[in-house]
Amino acid sequence: MRVGFFSQWYEPEPGPAGLTAVTARALAARGHAVHVLTGFPNYPTGTLAEGYRQVPRMREVLGGVHVTRVPLYLNHNKSAARRVTNYASFGVSAAVLGVPALPRLDALWVNYSPITIGLPMWLQQVVRGTPTVCEVGDLWPDTMAVSGLQGAGALTKMGKAGLERWCNAMYASSDAVVYISPGVGEILEARGVPRERLHYIPKSADETVFHASGVSLRAELGIDPDAVVLVYAGAMGAAQGLGSLIEACSLVDDPRLVVLLAGSGTEAEALRGAAASRGLSGVRFLGRIPHSQMADLLATADVAYVSLAQHPLSAVTMPSKTQSTLAAGRAILAAAAGDVANLVESRRVGFTATPGDSISIAEAIRAVLQTGRGGLADIGRRARLLYESEFSVDRTTTQVETLLSGVSRIQRRGLAHRTMDVSRG
Known about the structure:
By secondary structure, the protein is α/β, with parallel strands linked by helices. It has two domains: 2-204 and 392-424, 3-Layer(aba) Sandwich (Rossmann fold); 218-388, Glycogen Phosphorylase B (Rossmann fold), CATH 3.40.50. 44% of the residues lie in helices and 17% in strands. The protein has helices spanning 19-29, 80-98, 118-128, 142-145, 152-172, 182-190, 218-221, 243-251, 268-277, 294-300, 320-328, 339-346, 358-391, 393-424, and strands at residues 2-6, 33-39, 58-62, 65-70, 107-111, 132-136, 176-179, 198-200, 228-233, 257-262, 283-287, 303-307, 331-335, 350-353. A hairpin with a 2-residue loop joins strand 3 and strand 4 (65-70). The two termini are 32 Å apart.
């Protein structure tokens, strides 16, 4: 097949922004011709990635995937208005400059966050009739209301009806709608997406980055061999609710506990200040860690922390670090409700706590400490087996491949029927 991917985010952007590349590369490795339409990389800083210069159109080949990049307004700060401008600029640029440059596609996969991706998606459908799969990651317009961006609440309130109509139009014009977290499927069905067009395909981890073969950094970081290490790696923003972790650490009086926080974000300095003001010498901030060291960082951990601030979407959000932790073969401490908590509890791959509740999180940390390093290693081995059976790149790529092939066949069958009807007429 000749497959297209439309996504504002793509490698070398890190974390969840680069996950589309995992599937695209895997399909290319299976012999498909894969074409990606994306923007110039600038996540998470809002600054253009090293080695790139914005031009009207740029083509490159990454991992066997043909990537077409179009310019956009660079921004990733707290201003909702500027973030919306960033989203809108990509949508317009992708439609005007990107779609005309693409070859014929048998099927199209659209990462619909942000929903301005609807502009190039609809143009591709109108001009070329390409069958389309719409992947719902962050649920819109809900995600804007809880984003923590300045002015996002007011913007969402003013435009809520229009945003909902836009999203519904994207679902209606798609041949299939994919959701990555079980609870989202129920919401989409309640919003009118037919059950037969809904498909659950979870995200995998980037297995070139997250795997169970990392080398511990304990000696390099001066961590005692008997210490129980909790690692958080990722964005440090309002949506992660990490302030409650810092407060929880102040409630746990156990010298074995070492907490490593790696990453950056809008709340990073405030978190550093909170830890310093409480005298938490066991809480260390490592800054941003290169992708090449992520497996080693998780190999340093006995348990990895997954958290979500308490908001209406937290129960149906599946942070990508969940799969990354499973892939690394580490136990999870999830300060989250809903889908994440259900996975951790039902599959016995870690511990759960009430999001935003420092007392509950402290209790979970004490349970981690009581389990000890040996027990945590056993949980980690169970986590790795779960990843291999349900979340691996091989498994999810097969699901994606089957779905794309299915919508492509339906489209070809429909064209054949229309041709026959014309000839009979």
